[in-house]
Design brief:
The protein is α/β, with parallel strands linked by helices and about 400 residues long. About 45% of the residues lie in helices and about 15% in strands. Helix 4 runs parallel beside helix 6, helix 9 crosses helix 14 and helix 12 packs across helix 15.
Length: about 400
């Protein structure tokens, strides 16, 4: 089959990494995969796709997206009366833009993979034609529908949704009666079980410099909440005396403010920022614990990578992804969202109870099998057959 994967940019990020895994998986299943990047200026991860995947750049202007005008509804009382007319005008502009700039290629399936307005609109309004359409949701359906009614319109046009977790989907459908006809499939993100080659020299250097350290991998942003980890480290030291060093891997908007926060707390000799790295496997394999602090997550790849490299996890109980992966503390220890006191307590339990930590390492190795290419390809094959 000819399958088009559509992305709202291919910069460095979790969704993009998952998309790469899916493109490779579809290739292994015998499909021809085509990649559409709707933000050509964000293309850092394009080189990581298989050489068998053709990549197209297609820029969709922001003013053509109906949700661009939703602000008038949220900001002004009279906006809700004007919006239908604006929506009609935008729809006409979109039709004309598609008429003159739309792609003539036709695919068996077109997939809006990022799940953002740009790629959803691109697929829903046939900027490229597909016999069948799908979209991926990387969070909870409820959150998307509450954030904007436009999501519901786009889902209804696409019809087929893949979600990471069944949690909270039923309540969302009850709130949105006209979405009852959607075909919703639950499918985990795949992860290759072949480990990246370790650099023993780098691993030894990390052990020598940081000892048994706590590791957090991820971009620096408000929705990752690294400051909770930083505060938890201070509490560990004040309450329990000795505490391991903390190593952050990643870059982003809040990196500088986190560095300043570390200085304010006097922890600049205990907490270290390594920036973005392409050898995270060395950091996982050398860490004693993997920490995760996001208040909300889709299906965080960093937890799966931690399990793959044999690192026990302490993570905030952020729905739907962390809750789904750890399954009520069966595969890792959860702590309350935004609560450094609780995080410090759970980290201390893991550090003091070696038997419990080893138990979670063993459980994680078992859990990761549910996300293997073989497991996911069987489910995906069934979904595609049902679709066509």
């Amino acid at each position: 089959m000819r399958i088009a994967l559509v992305f709202d940019g291919l910069g460095v990020g979790g969704i993009e990494r998952v998309g790469i895994h899916y493109s490779k998986l579809l290739h292994k299943m015998g499909h021809k995969v085509y990649i559409y990047n709707l933000k050509p200026e964000c293309k850092e991860m394009e080189k990581m796709f298989s050489i068998d995947s053709e990549i197209f750049h297609y820029k969709v202007p922001r003013f053509l997206l109906p949700d661009y005008y939703m602000l008038m509804v949220k900001r002004w009382r009279w906006g809700k009366y004007l919006y239908p007319w604006v929506y009609l005008g935008v729809s006409i502009m979109m039709y004309l833009f598609r008429l003159f700039h739309g792609k003539r290629e036709k695919y068996d399936i077109t997939i809006a993979f990022s799940g953002h307005f740009r790629d959803l609109t691109f697929v829903a309004y046939n900027f490229v034609k597909g016999n069948k359409k799908m979209c991926w949701l990387h969070g909870a359906l409820m959150e998307y529908l509450v954030s904007s009614c436009t999501y519901g319109d786009l889902y209804r046009k696409i019809k087929n949704l893949c979600v990471l977790s069944e949690d909270r989907q039923e309540s969302a459908l009850h709130l949105n009666q006209y979405l009852r006809d959607l075909n919703i499939h639950q499918l985990y993100n795949p992860i290759p079980l072949e480990k990246e080659k370790l650099d023993n020299e780098v691993c030894q250097k990390l052990k020598k410099e940081f000892g048994d350290y706590l590791l957090m991998v991820g971009r620096f942003d408000e929705d990752k909440d690294q400051k909770t980890v930083i505060k938890a480290r201070q509490i560990l030291q004040d309450r329990y005396g000795e505490a391991p060093k903390v190593v952050f891997v990643g870059g982003g908007a809040t990196l500088d403010s986190c560095k300043e926060y570390v200085k304010e707390l006097g922890l600049d000799r205990q907490i270290f920022f390594m920036g973005p790295r392409n050898d995270v496997q060395n950091f996982y394999s050398s860490a004693i614990l993997s920490i995760h602090s996001s208040p909300s997550e889709g299906l965080p790849t960093v937890l799966l990578e931690s399990m793959l490299y044999g690192v026990a996890i302490v993570a905030t109980d952020s729905p739907p992804g962390v809750t789904e992966i750890l399954k009520n503390d069966r595969y890792g220890m959860r702590c309350a969202i935004g609560d450094p006191e609780d995080m410090a307590e759970k980290i201390n339990i893991m550090l003091k109870d070696n038997e419990k930590r080893l138990y979670y390492i063993e459980q994680g190795i078992k859990r990761i099998q549910d996300f293997s290419y073989d497991t996911i390809s069987k489910k995906l094959c069934y979904i595609i057959k049902e679709l066509v």
